[in-house]
Amino acid sequence: MTRIQKVAELAGVSTATVSRALAGKSTVSDSTRARVVAAAKELGYVVSASASSLASGRTRNVGVVVPFLDRWFYSAVLKGAHGGLTDAGYDVTLYHLDTTEVGPGTGTEGTNPRRRRLFEEFLLRKRVDALIAVTLELSDEELAELHAVGKPLVGLGGPLAGVPTLSIDDVEVSRLATEHLISLGHREIAHIGGDPVLDRDFHLGWRRRKGFEQALESAGIALEPRLLNSADFTVAGGYRSAKELLGDPRTRPTAIFAGSDEMAMGAIMAARDLGLRVPDDVSVIGIDGHDLADFYELTTVDQFAEEQGRLAAQTLLRELSPDGEHPAPQNVALPFKLIVRGSTAAPPDRR
Amino acid sequence: MTRIQKVAELAGVSTATVSRALAGKSTVSDSTRARVVAAAKELGYVVSASASSLASGRTRNVGVVVPFLDRWFYSAVLKGAHGGLTDAGYDVTLYHLDTTEVGPGTGTEGTNPRRRRLFEEFLLRKRVDALIAVTLELSDEELAELHAVGKPLVGLGGPLAGVPTLSIDDVEVSRLATEHLISLGHREIAHIGGDPVLDRDFHLGWRRRKGFEQALESAGIALEPRLLNSADFTVAGGYRSAKELLGDPRTRPTAIFAGSDEMAMGAIMAARDLGLRVPDDVSVIGIDGHDLADFYELTTVDQFAEEQGRLAAQTLLRELSPDGEHPAPQNVALPFKLIVRGSTAAPPDRR
DNA sequence: CTGAAAGCGCTAACAC
DNA sequence: GTGTTAGCGCTTTCAG
CATH assignment of B3-47? Predict the structure, then answer.
């Protein structure tokens, strides 16, 4: 492994100059820089990350914490964040905080070893310059720990007090989805929402359900408790839930609004398996903008997941850069868009 | 940030002892260790990763390189590898090498800036102790670079010369899938394989097709070129491909063997959309053991993706541990298993 | 614009 | 079993 000393010798300068030249500092003459770069290239020199970090206090590494590694939304966000960070020359270290296991509000957050360990051993180990937390809710104590370390932190989709957070307005998104259905003439609308376990960590289900209820109320439609069901945000969960909802022909709704595209796809399949046509017999709408939504002809509210990841990366990068002193705004509302496809139409009695 | 010196003072020992005690070295008396641990805890001390790495030469960080961040198989592998590594106290730094962009054999691997950069700036930056490369093919030069750095490297699913590699025998897996179909009585079997672009990097499509051909040959069934089609391993790709295959009633096969579960799911949907029943009119089998396979009642050859990731992690960990000097075996054949579900049955003419 | 030198915080010989 | 000490390889004042 070539050290900086070798490069300095070959270029005929001091190690300090090599460091400056390679770091792109402006206080190096062009000719010197050229020689240094050439020397470095010739020797195949690459700086030692740990030595550089130790001396400078910067790691050029950011941590991304996600609750799931194998769910479409998080993969898409990760992809975007990773891309943004990599393009800026940062490494990304991945942390997985399984929130179905435990979380704040359960009284276990202080004792769960995995979660504790993540904080104590990993996040605080000075390995990263900053963190992106995806739909993560941290306890006050955890937040305080993070703040104490003084690392920039940006939240995505989660309600993190006192932390710059990017998120879509879930209530609005749900209203939009529900209003689309109402505008088509539906009055018997079911909602497949989040399940209480997941909810503990990011209140997603609750917020989306609230938007649903608001839209109904604005339209003067009474909320039918039997049309509220919950699932775990997976295709299979949506399928089961939709089967329940659609099974009884006397109480069958004319439309289903699922809190995620994956559940919506499950609902579409459930409808098919019950011999119902989508959208002729039942309309289905989801939220997310899933890769496969187009394939399923699923009407959805796209939330541009990959873009969200990129945006989170950019926000963080801005906090990390010494210039542009503007601190990131505390909360940024992310864009979303209704994409109408073939899974929604007017209800049977209006056709 | 608390430094080791503070802990040493509070515990009334030297910094060396603190280091030893916290690293779990056996040469520290129990009572001393207890005091050190208590002091560290009281002060909230966490070692500085960079200082520790610089001094010891170990980073406790391993890199995982994947070609896709948003495909089920890779997510599952990543999940497994991440879990295994984290449990052992390692951080994982994620690298994304988009092989659809470029790869060895295209003559661009030496010049593609992204790929070059990954090697020069990231992998060689001494940030990781070791690497897991998932279905990645490296050029001889790239392999040499990696070897020169002297970092353990384990490959998963990819043919890496001279590197311990874990992989399923794709030819065998395909034979198994095809033989299942043949044993049910099918003779008109189509295959949706990999597309040439992906193939460039890991020859997956080619190997799976070979197993398919072998099985046919063993059964004395002539290979019909028109029954060979290719797609990009996605649901949508499988759908399109299956539509082509099943569209013409005169040449329609009685079964489709897709090279991945995602393509198989697409094929199932294509069949449905053509008014064909699965498995009554057409059988479909895939490869992978996708999360949703059960849901689709898809017969498949499960390759235990998450387990593969864990195994790769364990293999690497073994190479990293100073004891057990046994170098990892060069090539390990991974297990796979035929899971028969509802998407395969005897062909129409035999029922 | 460039060099000399002092650490960054920790680990690993080497003594005792 | 524990302390002393010399770096690990780089960045960054501080001079000039």
Answer: 1.10.260.40
